């Protein structure tokens, strides 16, 4: 592959430097680099980030190829600056065997837009009754380290305890969808003043917080780590903060939509805003932003959840839960965290690349992600232009689905290019500027 | 006048007064007459789109539209494509293609009439005839109409609404409309049957029915479904009746001229005793009659002004 010389990029938002990519790795880093025959990219004004890692993606394949495929989902990921995505297990068939996770992993390799790290189901068929063969999935070619029944909560306390204990043998982690099922039967939106007024069944904060509290205590009791998916309430933040102060092994994620959108959007009954956990209040949003800034919440994960048009073009109760997220994640994070002064670009690199790779245990091994932007590291990079403003248009999405909640919104920042081990997996426009001559 | 009637909260004081005054007019024009038909909506098509069983509401709307000489089509969930899983959207597109001017919709999903009115599927006026646990604005209008006929203007009147507020679209619409009309509303229910955030509603809340009834101008009893019992909203039907049912003793706590209302269908012996339901101060049957006048007024005000293409 021809070497690539990225010139004057602000690595993690620092001073402009050149990045030389050769043979899939970062071969040089510094001012005024040169390389004969290299393709040059003028990256003046652009931020260089390590390739983003999503710990929570629904690729829908196998089973719902009308909503998304590994091919289209990873293309959307590349457009969003991601070089690795963790594909959730709630496919059809469920990813609860070595066979299914290997299939998804292989589809990712064939597509080539981003590395696909399958998530294994905790329980057989996501039924919450007995453990799936977690060890077989861990030992498979897919090398599963993250296990989740996402979409459903592992609500049986004994089963959750066993799962937390069992995955210690191969350094796995349980990613819990924290939702007490009895408190959320038929739940449609955040329980509050608005749900009462709209006549929509409430999804109370306590249904999340009760499970978060239980699971950090369980994890502490058995000495395992636990990861909380899409944490959405101020109360959950307080529990995780307290747990971390006590040194308990808990990590947590927040979605872009929970950082930006509130339950007020539900007032028009438009199912684009139907998501699980539901959009919460402005007070919750403020607490989530603060928690992401101070590290109480470790990472941003998209919960990219594609649905076909008919699943949203209907009455609220009948609509599916979920929103697209991969292509807009970084823009939402810039808007809510960077432009507000809560997080710098180094912080963004941590929350969207280093930390999720560590939690998913894909920061080491043969094809590591979330590595520092340093000489000798794999050239997994995203180049971001933070100066742009884009009106979100779902028709331009790489996803097969169109269920973005941001349609018509103006969001900052553009992912200009994404590189997976030195290979461009996304270029917003022609960015290469010719061939470099010798050093001057 | 508003284009769609989706929530009782959509009605300004002027709008609401106009509907009630128009309903008075409808009553005057048809009450006691051999020929109850007015030619007002001749050539207009009103579709009753009922995704949920409700013989009384559908019949009331049907009569109202027919008395205004509109063509009426009934789509109901049983015996049509609605029961075969046809989507709300496809049904709406079908109605649009048939040239419906007004769609009266009853649906088990809260907000379904909003989707019909706002998603661009149809151009017809949409009247919410009850959506899930959200609203039932024409019920609130007929309740207000009934009370106004007996009590005069409702500003300052004290109305007590009792029962399953949590699941009641009737309660939601009544609270909003009565607040607009200036009445003082008190909701009475066990705490389990009040929605979160009810303290932000434009009304008072009490757990004590005896207390609330003193000085009331009218009491409205809501239907309580016995299946709520199995979901632990209250321990037993007997306990519910004792604490929140309206019997003669409780009726006597109210001033003698106070009205008793119920949107129906009643569970006699549960939320209301037969004695009270059939008492002289009960206007429950009259509510049904008035429902037709109010729905005539709504259809007239929403459809008579609209342009149609068929009049050549």
From TrEMBL, chain A:
<dbReference type="Pfam" id="PF12890">
    <property type="entry name" value="DHOase"/>
</dbReference>
<feature type="binding site">
    <location>
        <position position="150"/>
    </location>
    <ligand>
        <name>Zn(2+) 2</name>
    </ligand>
</feature>
<feature type="binding site">
    <location>
        <position position="150"/>
    </location>
    <ligand>
        <name>Zn(2+) 1</name>
    </ligand>
</feature>
<dbReference type="GO" id="GO:0004151">
    <property type="term" value="F:dihydroorotase activity"/>
</dbReference>
<feature type="binding site">
    <location>
        <position position="90"/>
    </location>
    <ligand>
        <name>substrate</name>
    </ligand>
</feature>
<feature type="binding site">
    <location>
        <position position="58"/>
    </location>
    <ligand>
        <name>Zn(2+) 1</name>
    </ligand>
</feature>
<keyword id="KW-0862">Zinc</keyword>
<dbReference type="InterPro" id="IPR024403">
    <property type="entry name" value="DHOase_cat"/>
</dbReference>
<feature type="binding site">
    <location>
        <begin position="58"/>
        <end position="60"/>
    </location>
    <ligand>
        <name>substrate</name>
    </ligand>
</feature>
<feature type="binding site">
    <location>
        <position position="56"/>
    </location>
    <ligand>
        <name>Zn(2+) 1</name>
    </ligand>
</feature>
<dbReference type="GO" id="GO:0006145">
    <property type="term" value="P:purine nucleobase catabolic process"/>
</dbReference>
<feature type="binding site">
    <location>
        <position position="177"/>
    </location>
    <ligand>
        <name>Zn(2+) 2</name>
    </ligand>
</feature>
<dbReference type="GO" id="GO:0044205">
    <property type="term" value="P:'de novo' UMP biosynthetic process"/>
</dbReference>
<protein>
    <recommendedName>
        <fullName>Dihydroorotase</fullName>
        <ecNumber>3.5.2.3</ecNumber>
    </recommendedName>
</protein>
<dbReference type="InterPro" id="IPR032466">
    <property type="entry name" value="Metal_Hydrolase"/>
</dbReference>
<dbReference type="GO" id="GO:0005737">
    <property type="term" value="C:cytoplasm"/>
</dbReference>
<feature type="binding site">
    <location>
        <position position="230"/>
    </location>
    <ligand>
        <name>Zn(2+) 2</name>
    </ligand>
</feature>
<feature type="binding site">
    <location>
        <position position="307"/>
    </location>
    <ligand>
        <name>substrate</name>
    </ligand>
</feature>
<feature type="binding site">
    <location>
        <position position="276"/>
    </location>
    <ligand>
        <name>substrate</name>
    </ligand>
</feature>
<keyword id="KW-0665">Pyrimidine biosynthesis</keyword>
<dbReference type="InterPro" id="IPR004722">
    <property type="entry name" value="DHOase"/>
</dbReference>
<comment type="similarity">
    <text>Belongs to the metallo-dependent hydrolases superfamily. DHOase family. Class I DHOase subfamily.</text>
</comment>
UniProtKB/TrEMBL annotation, chain B:
<comment type="function">
    <text>Catalyzes the condensation of carbamoyl phosphate and aspartate to form carbamoyl aspartate and inorganic phosphate, the committed step in the de novo pyrimidine nucleotide biosynthesis pathway.</text>
</comment>
<feature type="binding site">
    <location>
        <position position="223"/>
    </location>
    <ligand>
        <name>L-aspartate</name>
    </ligand>
</feature>
<keyword id="KW-0665">Pyrimidine biosynthesis</keyword>
<protein>
    <recommendedName>
        <fullName>Aspartate carbamoyltransferase</fullName>
        <ecNumber>2.1.3.2</ecNumber>
    </recommendedName>
</protein>
<feature type="binding site">
    <location>
        <position position="265"/>
    </location>
    <ligand>
        <name>carbamoyl phosphate</name>
    </ligand>
</feature>
<feature type="binding site">
    <location>
        <position position="136"/>
    </location>
    <ligand>
        <name>carbamoyl phosphate</name>
    </ligand>
</feature>
<feature type="binding site">
    <location>
        <position position="169"/>
    </location>
    <ligand>
        <name>L-aspartate</name>
    </ligand>
</feature>
<comment type="pathway">
    <text>Pyrimidine metabolism; UMP biosynthesis via de novo pathway; (S)-dihydroorotate from bicarbonate: step 2/3.</text>
</comment>
<feature type="binding site">
    <location>
        <position position="106"/>
    </location>
    <ligand>
        <name>carbamoyl phosphate</name>
    </ligand>
</feature>
<dbReference type="GO" id="GO:0016597">
    <property type="term" value="F:amino acid binding"/>
</dbReference>
<dbReference type="InterPro" id="IPR036901">
    <property type="entry name" value="Asp/Orn_carbamoylTrfase_sf"/>
</dbReference>
<feature type="domain" description="Aspartate/ornithine carbamoyltransferase Asp/Orn-binding">
    <location>
        <begin position="156"/>
        <end position="302"/>
    </location>
</feature>
<dbReference type="GO" id="GO:0006520">
    <property type="term" value="P:amino acid metabolic process"/>
</dbReference>
<dbReference type="InterPro" id="IPR006130">
    <property type="entry name" value="Asp/Orn_carbamoylTrfase"/>
</dbReference>
<feature type="binding site">
    <location>
        <position position="264"/>
    </location>
    <ligand>
        <name>carbamoyl phosphate</name>
    </ligand>
</feature>
<comment type="subunit">
    <text>Heterododecamer (2C3:3R2) of six catalytic PyrB chains organized as two trimers (C3), and six regulatory PyrI chains organized as three dimers (R2).</text>
</comment>
<dbReference type="Pfam" id="PF00185">
    <property type="entry name" value="OTCace"/>
</dbReference>
<feature type="domain" description="Aspartate/ornithine carbamoyltransferase carbamoyl-P binding">
    <location>
        <begin position="3"/>
        <end position="148"/>
    </location>
</feature>
<feature type="binding site">
    <location>
        <position position="84"/>
    </location>
    <ligand>
        <name>L-aspartate</name>
    </ligand>
</feature>
<feature type="binding site">
    <location>
        <position position="57"/>
    </location>
    <ligand>
        <name>carbamoyl phosphate</name>
    </ligand>
</feature>
<dbReference type="Pfam" id="PF02729">
    <property type="entry name" value="OTCace_N"/>
</dbReference>
<dbReference type="InterPro" id="IPR002082">
    <property type="entry name" value="Asp_carbamoyltransf"/>
</dbReference>
